[in-house]
Amino acid sequence: MDDKALRTHLSRLLDWEDAHRGFEAAVRDVPPGLRGMRPEGLPYSPWELLEHLRLAQRDILDFCRDPGYEEPENMDAYWPPDPEPPTPDAWDQSVAAFRADRTAVQALAADPEIHLFAAVPRGTGQTFLRELLLVADHNAYHVGQLIAIRRLLGIWA
What we know:
The protein is 53% helix and 0% strand. The chain is built from five helices and no strands.
């Protein structure tokens, strides 16, 4: 496989639905009154998963491209402090920010100036390829959780 084909696959991997439903389906039409609801037996609400997806994806993007990147002190930085969105607009703002950052990650994957097997300068040996795959894997995992929570809340068709 040539470099361009690999980059195309990486870019597509970040939002494809070839094997499962994707982010767009998972966040579509979640009623405002259920966005902060934790189904019985689960530690997350739809809001918590959405915001975790956004925060983690943004952190990996910053790690890859920001020379001033500073690693969060602990894992709590990747989760919102409350199960409910803090404002009526927070859900839509988080969705929009996730989409914008996903587009930026896709641009990073497609950028021929980025050597995929090169180590990220701020890291401890992590390559750009590893970080791109990490974003795709992490997002797919938590989108699946979000869909499972929607099923439990009775809001998944």
